[in-house]
Predict the structure.
Amino acid sequence: MKLYCLSNDAAKPCFVLSFKELLIMLDCGLSAHSVLNFLPLPPVPSTRLASLPNYTPPHLNDPLLEGELKECCGRVFVDSIPEFCPPLDKVVDFSQLDVILISNYTCMMALPFITEDTGFKGQVYATEPTLQIGRFYLEELAEWVSGGAGGAGGAGAARRWKELLHVLPAPLALAARPRSWRRLFSAAALSRALARVRVVGYDERVDVYGALDATAVSSGFCLGSANWVLRSAHEKVAYVSGSSTLTTHPRPINQAALRGADVLILAALTQTPAHNPDHMLGDLCVHATVTLRAGGSVLCPVYPSGVLYDLLECLSAHLDTAGLAGVPLYVVSPVADSSLAYSNILAEWVSVGKQARVYLPEEPFPHAALVRAGRLKHARSLHDDAFSADFRQPCVVFCGHPSLRFGAAVHLVELWASNPAHAIIFTEPDFPYLDALAPFQPLAMKAFHCPIDTSLNYSQANKLVRELRPRELALPEQYAAAPGGAAPRPHIAADVPTVLLRRGAARALGARRSMARATLSGALAARVAPRDVRAGLRAAPLQAALRVRDRRVSLDVAPPAAPGAPRPQAPRLDCSAPDVDALVHALGREGMPDARVERSADGCILHLPRHDTLVHVERHATHVFCQGDAAVRQALRRAITSCLPHV
Amino acid sequence: MPDIKITPLGAGQDVGRSCILLSMGGKNIMLDCGMHMGYNDERRFPDFSYIVPEGPITSQIDCVIISHFHLDHCGALPYMSEMVGYTGPIYMTHPTKAIAPILLEDMRKVAVERKGESNFFTSQMIKDCIKKVTAVTLHQSVMVDNELEIKAYYAGHVLGAAMFWIRVGSQSVVYTGDYNMTPDRHLGAAWIDKCRPDLLITESTYATTIRDSKRCRERDFLKKVHECVEKGGKVLIPVFALGRAQELCILLETYWERMNLKYPVYFALGLTEKANNYYKMFITWTNQKIRKTFVQRNMFDFKHIKPFDKSYIDNPGAMVVFATPGMLHAGLSLNIFKKWAPYEQNMVIMPGFCVQGTVGHKILNGAKKVEFENRQVVEVKMAVEYMSFSAHADAKGIMQLIQYCEPKNVLLVHGEAQKMEFLKDKIEKEFKINCYMPANGETCTINTPTKIPIDVSLRLLKAEAVRYNAQPPDPKRRRVVNGILCVRDNRLSLLDIDEMCDEIGINRHIIRFTSTVRFEDAGPSVKTAEKLKTLLSEKLEGWTITISEANISVESVLIKVEGDEDNTKNIYVSWTNQDEDLGSYILGLLQSMVQ
């Protein structure tokens, strides 16, 4: 069993497990940190962005670099269509992958990079909400990135700067392997990739080419989020990614299914271990109330699903009690309507409390009622006619993208940046908020950082590992204790063998296979008569016809051998040397009474001069040297076997 | 030989009151727990005293599985759990769990309040009963206990209808409940994978019918309704609140829209909105098209269909009314029927199956006069039409399902004996498998082959695979493994002999035979060995023969050539006792070659 790590970003993992001659990809996260090095793509042309000064590295005159870099408040940005950092493609040949298992929609964004135009022929499995919400995320991303008005001249792909990293200032100079960054896939590739996904339910056993069962079990992190358990008759691998032990809207985590694994692979822990999500939610409500009271508006750059549902529920309730029930809430996204509608038909995937509402029948999430009451409005984009006509301030706007590099949020920040009454509140943990805001500096509007990441934090994860008792643990190296000398950081500490992985690494895991499960037919079982070898253990030699179908092994009665052709026999397990006196007797019975016995230190030699035969009897072996006469040899065989204790 | 025992307490050569007892591998499972609509006495519920004449029933039943929310499949559940006293696990899908209590309550009201029956379960009992239910999702594999596993498949019949696959050890059964193999306007078609169960228990309501195309039936239905209202007649469509009603509503709604008709269409229920809400919440259980479009337009928001009020019964002029219940056995639909039946211009369309004993059944059989309990006699002059919209699989669908899941035996329930007989013949002929159709209370025993799980040493399998793969491919070639069967704590394993020795900590005693053959052959011994190898390769096809210098090995048989140049060679053949066959064969070959 071997594990490869293809992703740099522990929160957007991508592993490949090779096991039982299968290559199984676990998640395919797309790291989007790279987009922070690019200039924002405003949905409507922005004069400010367009008029940013060009940047040229000192003492360098490279005409090819012309116009690729711009400077804003002392920071250098690439003026181009943003690029992403997909999983490493040189370590594992994607065309050889058998299965991709996706744990949740935040960890599947690189799917088209893996399945399209790579010769990929395998299966992709995800739960239904993962597929649907993942589709929303991907479609939104594709639309935002392609829908930029090109205000920042980024029509072409800037490439030259990647050759000149050494002369560029930080943080651009520290960009990790920008040459492997890729432009986002086309909408066609995206829909082809999503069409490959096969939908599974929680606790559904998916048969992976007869070799093992893969089961998605609830992970409690978001709608349809799953941990995967790979099980064969003797081995169990648990992949825990994006799990939460907190109570929010999704079904709670199923820990029982993860217990006692041979290998536990742990990924996608919280990205903001220092922030408690409950406190952050409270802070967010307070900041929003204060801003709204003062007549300002609030912008929350969010993804179109996930924590958004909790935000809508909590914030609307909080505003009601604060006497701000009249403040409209807007969700702006190309998939806003689908996402809001969709969340309310996922009764089977929500927490018990929400599920109970469905039985009434009422929608599990309150945002359906908010929409009906006209409190919550959604729009495809900012310049929707209905939306613009309806837009009132002060208000709360939820829109993407959290990186502030594309999407409606770019325009709103541009619009509101100079007004100190407004506020922007960051809730998504994926991007450092100061980096996200860098191209909009100088900024007068208030900026708050209230990251809400419900994934396991380190103490929860440590507790989980202790409870699950795996025999071996595999982690991205970021989660291990800081290497000697560095400042200590929160980490996973377990008293089981731990394998650390970094991008591009391949590590062997300990689980050794020695047995395979098969079925024995009743007819064959009736034929064998096991004898006691010792207390509690019985054994018998067995010859069986082997049938392997769909990699399932069955044993049945072996057909009689074709006459004339030799065939190996079921082995006989002889336990100790024959008793020499008994052997002499037995030989006598077989018509060979003239055995001469010579005893020595480690055995004895029987000589049968009439048949020109020698029998060496030692402790662990009996060796018969005889002439070619078959009748004599058979007689010898009978004599020896008759006085050998055996199974 | 382990076997599977099935005893229908209801639905054996009968429709209504589905309740089937299944026992296999020491587990007893009750499939559905329905009531009979045609009876008002104790025959209405399954005979639970069959399970245990007296005493607690819980210890006799490991779990109850409900396939869908129709009362002939779940109607007796509160009776069983609250009045008979069953406290074990009950399984059904989420929509069934949501909707069943509403239909149960509906039925309870009709039975208690209108018919004045006593000794019936109460509202509280229904609530308590549903609380005990474990909801399952599609394809989720649920371990009821360590040995009993169940899994639901989509059945399409009504919202939330499921087929169940049940496994104990190596034995498995699929119970279909009611299912539909053709997608309709709001539900998809039943689906199952090739799970090859030992037994398939399938419904056979439409065992002999091959229904004409869905489209024809729909056109026919719309034509009849349209003709009737055009003449000023009233159309009564008795339906159950959830299920067919929604499909027909979608049908009429789109037709009214297209034809721009103004005749009022009523849906006679306080339930309508609630019912449609269930459809909205559980839209993942409807068909692909509705799921795709629900964000833009919800198919269950009707424009032309309005709620009905009792006062509308006597309104003049044409109208179409959907009323519950579906078999005209009680309630509003029966009231409307009594009022409208005597007039020729009116029409009643029965869109589904009616069990024996109901008014629906009587008029469908051509009764011109119907007598009621209070001696009231109603003349039936209105047109009576039967249109099969109940979403059951027809003969073709049943055969299709059998083909999908490849069962080793089939058992028919939920149908009429005569029709079953016909289908039974057909299944036995076409698939060459046994087919059974027990009557109520009759036990059917099905033998299944024994399969014992065993762990096989990988070393053994790999060695075999190496040998097998070294040979030219031949699908007919037998594969054989030799090993030692080991029994410990009732667990079996097949080990390689050396592993076995390690395992039990003994040294194996090996017996080896060595024979010498003299051979006159000039030249170096290596040359002689090569000659021998060629000869052996010819004779021993399919065996691995390797040679290094003057040593040849045929699998584990060793052959060694010794001797000086230009001299007699000694050929030693050596093999272990186990390889006696091969060893003596090779020795024989060499001896004959020398002579």
